[in-house]
Amino acid sequence: MSSFQSQNKAQIGVFGGSGFYKFLDNVEEITVETPFGAPSDKYFVGTIGDKKVAFLPRHGRNHSIPPQKINYRANVWGMKSLGVEQIISPCAVGSLQKEIQPGSFVILDQFVDRTTGRTDTFYEGPIATHVSAAEPYSERLRELAIKTANDLQIPVHHKGTVVVIQGPRFSSKAESIWFSKMGWETINMTQYPEVYLAKELELETLGIALVTDYDCGLVGDVDPVTHEQVMKVFEDNLGNLRKFLFELITKIPNEESIWKGKVIKSSRFI
Predict the structure, then answer these.
(1) What are 39-53's pLDDT values in tens digits?
(2) Cis status of the peptide bond prior to 193, with omega within 30 of 0
(3) What span, in angstroms and rounded, lies between the C-alpha atoms of 199 and 24?
């Protein structure tokens, strides 16, 4: 894996998903070059409380990059090069379970990867390196997020698995029924490989899913999702998301990531 030099510009990174293209005011716009090509946009660095925060819209500020074309490696590498140690990853999701209603938050704890062809590792040899994905999301950040949502009286589900599909198409009804019957809670197009790449770089990640709709196969009695519907619900709840993120970021302790130095390198399967 190529080396990098930290610019020490930010402590916390926030990725913005569909409908979430601007976060901070009075920002410094920073262009980051990476060994993996260009990130989705410039990084917007500003201050929340005593924290320096870097924001990047993962689809670009004009939503010009579809999920299967995002340069996830460049985006995550760029955050690391700015000095970021914790990543907050909000995303719009569909619900796969009826009790998980649009407008609520789900604090993710697991993912299921259903993507194809995405480059999903920084470790491409010559030494075989295997980083565990057993616990992809930071437990301490999850606990802090749950408390913050409860304090703000935002409807929140304390855990949930996100099924990550390739996109840009939505699921067929048969696929959606399958996902629901497996007991998985939400569906999205961008959490993988973003969260796993962050773990390879020893960054703690918090996945915050904002539920925008019921997926089309949910018990067979909901209308098929549309992009317009997703955007409307997301925009209606953007105020809650911003309030939540500002409150959460002020509560994150000023300390190094507890994952630092915990990447497991193995020569198995050479």
Answers:
(1) 999 999 999 989 999
(2) yes
(3) 25
| Tokens 């299967």 sit on residue | 68
CB 147 within 8 A of CB 124: no
The pair phi, psi for residue 92, each rounded to 5°, is: -80, 135
Q: Find tokens 């716009």 and name the residue.
A: 29
Residue 83 CB neighbour total at 10 angstroms: 17
Cα–Cα distance, 53 to 213 (Å, whole number):
29
Ordered structural domains, the chain, with CATH: 12-251 (3.40.50.1580)
Q: Is 187 strand, coil or helix?
A: strand
Catalytic residue list contains 120: no
Mean of per-residue pLDDT scores for the chain:
88
Quick check: 105 and 211 in contact, CB under 8 A? yes
> Is 17 in contact with 67 (CB distance < 8 Å)?
no
Neighbours of 229 (CB within 10 A): 16
Do 79 and 40 contact (CB within 8 A), yes or no?
no
Alpha helices in the chain (DSSP H): 72-81, 139-151, 173-181, 191-200, 227-236, 238-251
Percent of the chain with pLDDT over 70: 83
> Over 90: is that where the pLDDT of 84 sits?
yes
Dmax over Cα atoms in the chain, in whole Å?
A: 52
**Cα(42)–Cα(216) distance, integer angstroms:** 35
151 is annotated as an active-site residue? no
Catalytic residue among 215, 221, 223, 236: 215
Q: Which residue type occupies 214?
A: Y
Of 109, 213, 223, 236, the catalytic one is 213
